[in-house]
Amino acid sequence: MKPVTKEILKESANKLMFDMSDEQYSALLEEFDTITKQMELISEIPNVDEITPMVFPFDVTNDYLREDVAQESLKRDDALKNAKDVVDGQIRLPKVVG
Amino acid sequence: MDYLKLSISEIHKAILAGEVSPKELILSALKKAHEDKNNAFEYICDKEALEQVENLNENQKNNLLYGIPFVLKDNFSTKDIPTTGSSNILNGYVPIYSSEVYLRLVEQGAILIGKTTMDELAMGGTGTTGHKGVTYNPWDKTNSRLVGGSSCGSAAASSAGIVPFAIGSDTGDSVRKPASYVGLVGFKPTWGRISRYGMFPFATSLDHVAFFTRNVEDSATILKVLAGRDDKDSTSSFKPVDDYCSQLNANLKGKKIALIKGINDCINDTLILDTFNKVVELAKQEGATIDLVEIDNKLLKAIYPTYIVISCAEATSNNANLDGIKFGPRAEGESYEQIVFNNRTNGFSELIKRRFVIGSYSLLKENQNDLFLRAQRCRHLIVNTINNVLDEYDAILTPATPSVAPLISSVSSDKLSNEYLIADNHLAIANFGGLPSITIPCGFENGLPFGLNLTGKAFEETKLYSIAKRFEDITGLANIVAKEDK
């Protein structure tokens, strides 16, 4: 397991596209002291690694295909309604290609 | 007569008898919502509710929900009505479609009077972290106690006598814990029983639609309206919908109920434990077989960390769409990456960021096996253990919370103690296994309510309601509402 440092916490936050202040990282690092101890409680369970990971509460199998019927899709005006910078029916962003 | 303090069935009878009209009810509910002192509302639907009540179809007046006011937690999408998830990152967002839950209720004639406050994006258990600040417990006149979360505003609005039922969501205990703190019935059904279409996802494998009512019968009534397959939610179940009210008159004779020793052992509040034990004795006298069952304490202590790792990890991907470009406030930036980065840095509160970092850290390549996958394995062990108990018993009965509503100012408890890890967080077991689970009032301590919880087998809601109704009769605590003298 990767040891917890301020740098690792910053890396974890930046991967999710946000940042925190230096003080906030320090406070979180302190909190991680407890979080790590809590996480270690899982490892104390005998045979925990012998069982498969549970992804959902129980198996849900969908073995059907819906009828191939055309449905109304999202209207452009609706799709753009909540965007803050719209020009000519498109969301404006800074140039990506020079 | 304040009809809003009655149960759904009582209000329905009053409407049919012509004692009160839907319009009078809605005007009264809106007035109360504006006078609310608990910070329960994100948005009050003055215009929308009045429009809807004017357009009610009288042919529907035999529907139990006809003209009945209700509120939705602000993580349910409502077309043309602002929906923020109590997060600054969604300030000003107005959905272009409605959640299935909202549509099903409106179709029955129920009338939405407001969207309620919540812990930011449903990630919290205190009702203190939404962008509008702390939501207060209606039972405490000094505004110094938590209502609990994350469905804090829905709990407060219903227990304060504004609406007879309120919709929330429950990922770890977000309806069933606040229900304990405010003297309401809080229920979450089997995972997949109610469509989650249009409900903001937090942790998909644990999220449930859930709701507050003032008695068990009303809860069964709401489930009947909301349950059933929805093609728009691929995880919603095809199983037929039951008549959930059909066994409410059954007794406890022959019913087998399990108590979990390790949970009861770490309840330190003797009044809560004594009251709980008295209720257990009365249930035994009615013919129930109630046994103390042992579960490995190591498993019980792992409930909370398992929940935190899985929920935070799932939350990181579920909230990746909150970029401020398609919706929400837009920050400046020289590239689109920088705009997204700034939007998210400005839009999320510190607490939410911490949860995301926990999730992100658990998912780091080097940690995934030791943290995320191991938590999923632990979840499997816990669920197998609980399902084995439920193979032998009709329900598991526990105190819902180890205390009455805590003081907002109280120093957070020792987060490595059994009381915190087990007694305060055991309700997440039902989310792990997707099991139906209900909290009902159990007693009072210094004028503040506390609840008990019953959890049953998947898709056996009718039986669970039947058992819960008898416990409600034993405690005699149905239809309780906080006094209005704030």
What are the SSEs and their pairings?
The complex is a heterodimer of chains A (98) and B (486).
Chain A: H1 6-15, H2 22-43, H3 76-80, E1 86-87, E2 90-91
Antiparallel strand pairs in A: 1-2
Chain B: H1 8-16, H2 22-35, E1 41-44, H3 46-54, E2 69-73, H4 100-107, E3 111-116, H5 152-159, E4 165-170, H6 176-182, E5 185-188, E6 208-213, H7 216-226, E7 256-260, H8 261-264, H9 270-285, E8 289-293, H10 297-301, H11 303-318, H12 336-347, H13 350-363, H14 369-392, E9 395-399, H15 418-423, H16 428-433, E10 437-445, E11 448-455, H17 461-475
Parallel strand pairs in B: 2-3, 2-4, 7-8, 7-9
Antiparallel strand pairs in B: 1-3, 4-6, 5-6, 5-10, 9-11, 10-11
List its salient traits.
heterodimer, A: two-stranded antiparallel sheet, 2 strands, 4% strand, B: 486 residues, alpha/beta, 11-stranded mixed sheet, 38% helix, 13% strand, globular
Describe this structure in words.
The complex is a heterodimer of chains A (98) and B (486). Chain A has 98 residues and is mostly helical. Chain A has a domain at 6-49. Chain A is built from three helices and two strands. Chain A has helices at 6-15, 22-43, 76-80, and strands spanning 86-87, 90-91. Chain A has a two-stranded antiparallel ribbon. The model of chain A has no long low-confidence stretch (mean pLDDT 92). Chain B is α/β, with parallel strands linked by helices and 486 residues long. In chain B, helix 7 runs antiparallel to helix 17 and helix 11 (303-318) crosses helix 13 (350-363). The chains are: A mainly alpha (98), B alpha/beta (486). Chains A and B meet through helix 1 and helix 2 of A and helix 10, helix 11, helix 12, helix 13 and helix 14 of B.
